[in-house]
Amino acid sequence: QHTAVASLLELINHSQSLALVIEDKHRRYQSSDNNPLSGRLQMVSVPPIYPVLHRAIEENTDFFQSQVLWSQLDTEQREQHVSCVDLFYRLHCLAPSASICEDIICQALLHKDKAIRLEALHRFTVLWHLTRETQCNRTMSLSRSFDSLCVVVDSLTSADGSISAAAQCWLVRALSLNDVIRILEPILLLLLHPSTQRCSIQSVKQNLTADREALWAELESGPEPEKPEEALPASRSESEETEEEEVKEEEEEEAESEHTESADTSGAQVSTDNSSSGSAPPSSVEEGGLVNGLRRVESEHTQASDSLSSEEEEDFELEAMARSRLLKQEREKREAINSLFRHVLLYPAAAGGWRRLLQGLALLDSLLRSSPECHLVDALCCTSLDTSSAAHLNLVSNLLQRHQQAQDGRCFYGCLLSPTSSPSGPPSLLVELLVSLCLQILRSHYPSYLSLTPLDLQGNMEVQVKSVTVLTRIVNQLCFTVRGQGCSKATLESIHKLLTCCKVQQYALLSLSASMYVSQKAADKGASKGAELLDEAGGLSEESLVNLGVGGGQEQCPLQIELLKLLQALIVLEYHVWPGGVASAVNSQPGDPRESSPASTPLAREWQTAVLFQQSIKAAQYVQSHPITAQGMFVSAAARALQPQYGYAMHPHWVSLLCSSLPYLGRSLGIIVSPLISQICRNMDDLVKLHEHEGGKANHKENIAPDYPLTLLEGLTTITHYCFLDNKKSLVACDPVDVRNARNAVLEALPQMLSSMALLWGVVMREEFQKRASDSGHSSKHASTSVYFKSSKILRQRILQFLLPLTGHYGVQLMASVGVVWSNRKSKRRHKNKVLPVASEARLVIVELIKSLHTLNIETVLHLVKEVVKRPHQIKGEQKATLVDIPMLQFSYAYVQISAAALQENVAPLLSLLRESVQLNLAPPGHFLLLILNDFVNRLPNLDSKKDSKDLQEVTQRILETVGGIAGSSLEQTSWLSRSLEVKVQPQVCVEAEEPDDTEVDGEILAPLLDMVYRSDEKEKAVPLISRLLYYVFPYLKNHAYNMPSFAAGAQLLSSLSGYACTKRAWKKEVFELFMDPLFFTMDASCAHWKSIIDHLLTHEKTMFKDLMAMQSSSLKLFTSADQKPMLLKRQAFAMFSGELDQYHLYLPLIQRLTETLRMNSSPAVSAQMFLMFRVLLLRISSQHLTSLWPIMVTELIRIFARLEKSLQPEKDVSLTKVVRGALDRNGPVNFSNAELDMYLSACKFLDTSLAFPPEKMPLFQYRWAFVPEVDVSRYSGPENALIEFEQECTPHVVRVLEGIQERYGALNGLTEESSTDNLEFPLLTQSSLSSITQLLPFLRTLCCSFQAPPPSGQPAAHFPIAEYPAASSHIVLSRLEDIIENEFLDSMES
């Protein structure tokens, strides 16, 4: 049977060959005019089997159904395998369709029964090995391979382990027998299918530009009918319609080219038929749009030039210059963008070729995944595409040349050019072929002028992603190869040559940059004005020719992810295969005449290397002979990669790439990690701020992974620890200089990183607090802030893992960064009534973070703080001008407060910090923070050792000396011989809101500090210190003009120090002089401090109060004679006001004699001050002690009211003529002097105070009836309401004064008696001065109505306002009286 079948197959093969030759001759000479054989006898070999009979065998018999031969390949008939395989292969080659035999194999390989599938794999293995020699002969007209190989390759990744294992065994054995080209042949035919042809974007742009120029020339030439139609580019539709037919014809012609002498001629005829269609298919719609655009621009330019007038030329020139400048900038930007797309290849038509590409790449990926030991890649590196050894490879070679021809700008179909005419020859090694094909597929896009479906765009994107995946697998396996022990230098050179010839790194970087640009363009919508102008000016750009899709950045993510994996593998491979190592990659570039001679000395070589590296790192394009890590494109992409516009989904992949590539970055390490760290910190900060302000409700357009902050934090930890810590476990040797430069760059970013850690730590603290509140039942549920910070425990661990290793060798730098962060987190406002600094919540988070580092105990922290304060310039870069000594002391104060318990055991570190810091030339706030720290030391109980006490006293002395020097910096000598000082006339510097004034701090803590430092037997040691300090403070207290903040702070300090009797020698004399100074009362709210100071002065000096009361007014020589008595009386009143209740009641006889003396020949000013003293006596002397003074006070009050009444009375002893003539003069308003108005106001205030005093504090004012009416006489109807004869009715003084004012002023001033519903309370008078006596009217009217009984029913009530008596709260009344009297003493600052 086998012999008969073999004989028949030989006859069929011979008949097919003869039939093809006869048909070819007939077709070739039939259309020829000069047939050389015309008229001659011809001999023709007739096929043994006529074509008609051959067609009948194909259609009417099952001869080609070789199921029998396939079934005989079982294990039971092994002796028949050779002949069966030979016949089966011949039958497969001669069958009318290749699918006949392929169907039989594939049905068995894909059978549902697992046993049948395993048997089919065995039979295929037999078929494969026994056809190895048969495929190489050239005895048949066709040479076909088995496409069922694709099914076997798919089985390599089968989920069934036995199937994949069987396929794996076949693959390993086939590779060991050098069958790699046979395995790849069907895959290569898929990847090189004519429907996947592509051309360079430059050729398409050139053709489109030429077509536009031709159209423009035609439009300008006018309506010439003889214009040839060939000038217009033909449509591509005809070629698209006939594409499938051409593909079939091409395959048949290429298969017959080895056997028929007319194959090339036939191919040429095909080329002639299709050459008219052209290679670039622009759309007619777009051409029209471009032409219209050109016409529009031209017409606008013409119209503008025609309409120009001489007046508009200047404006037009300016506008043209601005337009030109904008166009130049946009052209540069457009040029940079276009450079990203010049590597692109364009498909001429949307023929669905991406499906074949995707299938071929999937098969290739399966092969690479199934050979983890790099057998396949090793075979690819050793095998070339040799067509002389296998006839069936001719088609692969032919398609490869045609693809190369199309990329070079020529036609895909037609006769092949000679290899020398092509600018780039076909690759020789299979690995080079596969890498080139993958790169071509990666670079291939659909043009923008084709109408495509979304499926085509998506399919091409999948093809590109798969091509990068295959490339990555090849590169990874090459890395595995070069890492082996026995890798030769020749192998390394060949791999380096492969990367260089195929331009793998260049195309990978260009593709990544273009993809990132597409993502950014989708995020930044809207064209700039310059882009619009450039579009108006016309011109095609490479970007406009590429169909980038409409999906935006999300569509680019899969491609970018795979490209990053490829770059990661390439970086590692470059490190191993680069000649002399990557460090030597920046040697002189070939072709550069300036670098033709290498440097002779090592220093010159190092300089040359650095210069070339800088040129490469700054270049916008790919620079040959430099590795990826030294390319400006890569560094720029890495610096921008984590920006939000490039997509949050890509950030983890970029972080992974850069972290894994750290040992290979070399000189670029510091350049890359610095912007990367900054961007990571910004992204984390933005996420935290978004969470804080919006409650975790993100408004990003894209979803961010919940573990996004953890990913960034882990990447930051990896990068920082690599640069900071010794990487002894690293397998890659790094240049110490590169690591040191990177370490310096990371040190500059350390404050920013610590700030981000503090923000994250704040989130952790809030999350844990809310969780504890939820667990304890105080909250109904745990209100989780955000999905990004839900896992606070893991976040806490990651933060500590980042910081803890840095505390060892970089503790000082870490603490300096704490100072920078502390300084940046300034409080927006200072706490009111808080002199000592209070750390804000943001700053307390920093303290808690440092406290959580278990490697930093309090002794270590204070030691690091001391080192930073001694050398505050620890942080360079952007923070170079920032001194961190003061923030460090502020931090240490807050830290010591929280860690007080640990500090009690050992105060030596804090004393050491104080001792070292006080010797430095710190800015003023630093010394007062030292005071604060010193104050805190004194709160600790165990300072019993004499050495510590002595050290503390020494530090305190130095601090006080320095503080005094700082206070004296704003003082100057009154004369060059005098030792007295005065305040310099200079504007007051506004202290920052968070920094307390120096003297404020002194006043708050200095006195108790000294009391603690100097024990009871050492108090006298403090007096010289205080004297030296107050020597600089008293000049501020003498000046009230332009240093009120310093005046108030000095008063606070003096108030604090004067509380200790042992210090009176240092201030007694100066305070008394200040008290007698004419400007003593020119102050503001600092009066409270002066009350304490005067009280201390009178308390510590036993006879001081008595001497003050007995002082003669003539002793006040600084005042004028008229002001001496009232000013002395005011100071005597203030002295009593400064004391406590009943403190001076024993001196009442002296005070009584004083008042009696003053009543003699008293002036209005003296009377005013006397009533002020009376009011002070009401507040400072109890009612039982004040009885003897009441007659004097009431008599003086009656005298003043009587004087006022007399002044308001009209004169009656004048003639009628005089009355009529002088009515307005004598009965009109009275002109009181200011002194008189002050006297009357002071008297009314004394009356107001007496009436307002709470009854429980003082018995009812017994003389009230003499001043205010208690009964309305006009309504009284009780007994004894008639007056005794010759007796005058008793009218209260208030009523008399009120009537007098109304009589004198009422008619003239039009005073109205309007009712008021306001609820008035005593005291009623709060104003400090009067401009007219009429301002007392509301007060007088209220008094007239407030103490009368309510009217009987039926009678109208009084229409004047009534004050509430007694007041509801006696405490409030007394407090108001205190405030009013205190303000009474103060003089206006303006006066």
Automatic annotation (TrEMBL):
One CC-aspect GO term: cytosol
What's any GO biological process attached to this entry? Golgi to endosome transport
> Which residue ranges have biased composition labelled Low complexity?
275-284
The chain positions of domain DOP1-like TPR read 339-726
Domain DOP1-like C-terminal residue range list? 938-1344
Q: Which Pfam families match?
A: DOP1_C, TPR_DOP1
Q: Where is this region: Disordered?
A: 219-288
Compositional bias (Acidic residues) at which positions? 240-256
PANTHER family given in the database record = DOPEY-RELATED, PROTEIN DOPEY-2
Q: What is this protein called?
A: DOP1 leucine zipper like protein B
